[in-house]
Each structure stands twice: as structure tokens, then as C-alpha cells.
Amino acid sequence: MCGFVGYVNQTDVQDDVIVNMANRIRHRGPDDEAFFRDENVSMGFRRLSIIDLAHGRQPMYNQDQTKVLTFNGEIYNYQEIRKELQDLGYEFKTDVDSEVLIHGYDAWGPELLQKTRGMYAFAIYDKATNEVFMARDHFGIKPLYYYDDGKTFLWASEIKGFLDHPNFVKEFNEELLPIHLSFEFIPSKETMFKNVYKVMPGQYLIHKNGKTEVHQYYKFNYDEIDNSQTVEEDAQKIREIVRESVGSHMVADVEVGSFLSSGVDSSYVFNEASKIKQDDIQSFTLGYDRSKYSEIDWAHDFAEGIGQKNTPIKIDADDYFGILPTIMYYMDEPMSNPSAMQLYFLSKGTREHVKVALSGEGADEFFGGYNTYLEAGPFERYQKFVPGFIRKGLAGAVKNMPRFHGKRFLTRGAQPLSERYYRVNYVYDYNEREKILKNKSLNVDTGAYTKHIFDEVKDKDEMTQMQYFDINTWLPFDILQKADRMSMANSLEVRTPLVDREVAKFAATMPIKTRIQGTTTKVSLRKAAQAELPEKVAQKEKLGFPSPVAQWMKEPKFKKMIEDAFTSDVAKKFFDTDALLEIFQEHLNGKSSMQKIFTIYTFILWYQIYFPEDCENDIRDQIQYNEVKAHQGE
């Protein structure tokens, strides 16, 4: 696990720029650093050593030294690809997976990506053709960004890696503010910085002669659904696939641990890991002193029940609110998912014991775990049997009525799924944004912004469309992004066995009846887990990542912090501050979502950190500065 940076050379850039850029992401790889420069390209690398600790230094070269690689991630089937390359005559100097990539690209070019299984982002510079090739893994587990304004071309594992390049123009992409307020992330290649783009999951990019071409080498789809499959059959297949995937994800020359909550996903992964290792394996759980929000006791009992160790990691309100500015720095873009902060502390505590940890992300998206998927059936029946003009009439009639049971269903029943699915207005809807945005002209239809994703599976049932949308947006841009940033902020490698090419290949065949039944989500996964775990764990309701943040906000100390932010110069720049305070008061009175408050608050912190020149109150001293400086090597 590592981090890298690079750029196409320009005459006015000093040699130390690439070093400063790499230092900016030192937290991703504190074990080693190295650089490559020629007249065309500069590349920098930071290494976190996991496999073949004594070797594998990057940048790495092919046999004739014409290609140069920097790589972040793990290739879980690298031994298979290595054997294939050896049969072709390639010689290997190390036992690291990065050498497989450089020789594999030399042998097959972009077709190499059809063979890889893993989490990765990498860049290869070809001296002979003077082109840069970059690729990101199938599901976006590892990040990869590029800056392209038509004159300057840069790339990096994290956006902050661009900050030290003199030709990087740091500019806030204000047009995306309403999109962020709706989704809590940007569900496209765009970012909150102008001219900074994501290489999307399953894509590779070629930059040559000032031109950038982007290609899609993989796209998850549901074209192989097999309606003949049964829950029993799918559960048995899941048992086989999960065991194999967990085993593949445990290959390392350092100790591997596991995150553990009270839910079925992490419990299942940890249990499988303990069987495969056939030895002690540590697990780590985050919690609070207030047992209502804490999973520590549950996790401890489960680990003890299978003869393994669990280490509790506790935080309080001061920890949580104190770390927020630092979190916004590490996230690159504003992130209002409250669990990001919990993941930070969980990763920090875990890193004190191990260098690699398994996690259970992906199960809900691939196997149908979110309760919102249960809405699909009732809405489909309503739309099938009630004509559209009647549904629209009912929606209009109840719109201005006081809240009553069924009002939300009738209102949403007149909308297409691309507008109705709650992720499209996850935090703020159009009318709520209209109320708080200072520049009303920025407000857009967020449903239109992502409609093309639903259109890609418009021939599928609504639940499948929801899952497809989540796999292509929520999973890479929220779940996996915060997992990567918060773990790498602490130099911890997190591996996700349930976000895997082989797991996804099978999940794409599952019919609805083996994903949900009645009010039960993840029905096949739960049945698979039930054969391996206690029933109370396998059937436990999804909690997400519970926290007392909503209650903490009401405490005087933190209430004042939020009110100060809501009346700050940043708030005045972008929002109607009276409207913000009104929403906050509604929350204090128990009538408004905590998420609405948190989304605005974290955005303001993020802006103050990345655009301090626009702020009267510079909060950079609030970022735990010694820690950040240590990570940056400044």
C-alpha cells in the first residue's frame, strides 16, 4: 500500500517539486521514498511495505528500462500472472506484485487489466512512446486523480499531492456545491476542485502529446441474472466465494488483523480469516462509553466465542469534534458521513498493533443489504396498477397537507426512480437547497445529474437499479473513499474481501428472491453466514456505524462551534446564514436531520482548510498540526 505523484515536465518547474508533492502524501507510505525524472516526466513514490519487505522499491522498471511504474494497492492473483509471464520469458528480481504489473504491461499493454484481481491504482511512463498510462481497479477501492487544464498535466493518489506544484491552479468548483449538498459526495468524475478529475472505477487513461484519452475496461452489470437460482444454492456459493476471497486477501509478509463491528458482514469476514489463519488473529472495534451507541461488548463476546482477541478503541465527543478539521484535510473533498471520523480512530488504534486490516465493506451493495431496497416492490406494484395521471394527482393533492402516514409514499409514487431514490436527495432536496444557498442560480436538478446511471439499467427491476446505482456511486465515492483516506491517514492498509472481482461476478447472477425476501435483506448472505456464525449474529439488523453525534451537537461546547461556523465568513459567502441557524434550531428541537447540520458544518471546515486565503478566521492551527507535519515530512 503506497502513494504516488507525477507530472509531465515543464521548463519552469524546479527539481524539488516532485519531492514536495510526494511528501504531501507521506502518510500513505512512510517506509520508503524514491523518484524518477527525465526530460519528459517526473514521478514520485511513497511506500508502505507489505509484501517482500526488503525489495520492491519503486519506481520500478521493465527489463529494458523503457517503462517506469508507480503502483498503489495489492494484486491478489499476482502469482498466477507471474507464472504466465515467466512462461513468456520474463525474469523477476523480486516477489512483489508491482513487478508483475510492469512486466504485464510490457507484454500485453492495457489487456493486462483483464487479468488483474485486486485493489490498485498505478501509473506507467513509456519512454519510447512518451506516453503515460494510468489505471484504477474495478470498483474504485484505491484512488487516482489527475489535473488537466490543457497546459499542465499532473497525477496523484490524493488531490493534496497537487498543492505543491507551481502550475496547479487551486480553484473551488462552486457549481458542484448543490451536488455535494444532495449526495454528500460528487457522483461523477468531477471533484470540488476545477480541472481535477477522478479516474473512475474500471477505467484506464492514456496521456500523450498533450491529449488525454479515457477508456473503460470494466463495468459491473446485471446481464447474467439467473432466476432459477435458489437461496440455498446461492448461500452455498457465497460460502465458497467468501472463504476463497478472504484467503486471497490475507496474503502478506506482515500481520493481518480485522475490523469487527456487531454486524454480520465484518463478523463473517473475521470468522473466515480466523479459520484460514488457524492461529490467533486480532480484531478491533470502535465504541463509546455510552453503551446505547457502542458495539464493543457485542464484538468482544463474539471474538471470545470463536477464541480470538478483540481490542476496544473508545472515543468521546472531544476526540470526535477535535479531529474534524484534520479529517477534512485528509479527505481532500468535504465528507459529511459521520462514520469517517469513527473510521479514523478505528484505523489509528488498529495501526498500533497491525499494518493490514480486513473490513466488511461491499456486502450491502452486492448482496442487497440496505432497507431502502425493500421499497422497490411496493412502488413497482403501485406504479403498475395505478395510472400515472392518478398518481400525479394524488401527489399534488397531498403535497401541502400536514404530515400523515402514507404521505411520503404518495408524493414519491408519482416520480420516476431516478428522482425518487433517496440517495439522489440523500441530505438536501431541491427546495431545501433553494432555501439555504446564497446563489440560487447554482441550484440544479440532482436527479438529472445522475439519471444516466439509472438509464444504463432501465430494463431491470427497481431493486436492481438501486443496487447498480449504489455500486457505481455510493460504494466508490463514499464507502470506499472514506475507508481509504482514514486508513491511509494512519498508514494502515485496509482490504475489502467482499469488494472483489470474483464476489461481484457471482453477485451479478443473483435474482431478487435470493437477495431479499419479505422484510429480510441480504437473505442469501445471511443464510451463508448462519452456517458459520451464531444465528443472532447472522440475522442481526443493520446498524450502520452508530454514533452519538446528534446528541453531542446539543451540548453547549459543540453547539457554539457549529453556530460560529454557521455565521462565519465562509457561511456568509455561500449560504443564507439565517436559514442555516433555523435548521440547526430545528435539530436542537428534535425536528431536523443531524445529517443536514453535519453536511454544512464539515463543508465549512473543509473550505477553511483548503481555501484559507478566502477566510478571515484561519483554522489551520486547529488541524492537529504536529501530526500533519509529521505525515508530510515538513
UniProtKB/TrEMBL annotation:
The record marks E361 as: Important for beta-aspartyl-AMP intermediate formation. GO terms for molecular function: asparagine synthase (glutamine-hydrolyzing) activity; ATP binding. PROSITE patterns: GATASE_TYPE_2 (PS51278). ATP binds at S359, G360. The active site is at C2. Pathway: Amino-acid biosynthesis; L-asparagine biosynthesis; L-asparagine from L-aspartate (L-Gln route): step 1/1. Its EC number is 6.3.5.4. This is asparagine synthase (glutamine-hydrolyzing). It comes from Ligilactobacillus hayakitensis DSM 18933 = JCM 14209.
